[in-house]
Amino acid sequence: MLPQTNYHVSEYEMALAHTPVLLDELVDLLQPAAGETAFDATFGAGGHAAAVARRLGADGLLIACDRDPTVAEYFRDVAREAPCATELYHGNFADVLAARPDASVDIIYLDLGVSSMQLDRRERGFSYAWDAPLDMRMDPSQAVTAADLVNTLSVAELTDVFRRYGEERYAVDIARRIERQRSRQPFETTGQLVDVIKCAIPTPARFGAGNPARRVFQALRIVVNNELESLARGLEEAYRVLKPGGRLAAISFHSLEDRTVKQFFRGHAAGCICPPGLPICVCGHEPTMRVLTRRPVTPRAHEIESNARAKAAKLRAAVKLEA
Ligand SMILES: C[S@@+](CC[C@H](N)C(=O)[O-])C[C@H]1O[C@@H](n2cnc3c(N)ncnc32)[C@H](O)[C@@H]1O
Question: Atom 13 in ligand 1: which residue has the minimum CA distance?
Answer without folding.
Answer: 42
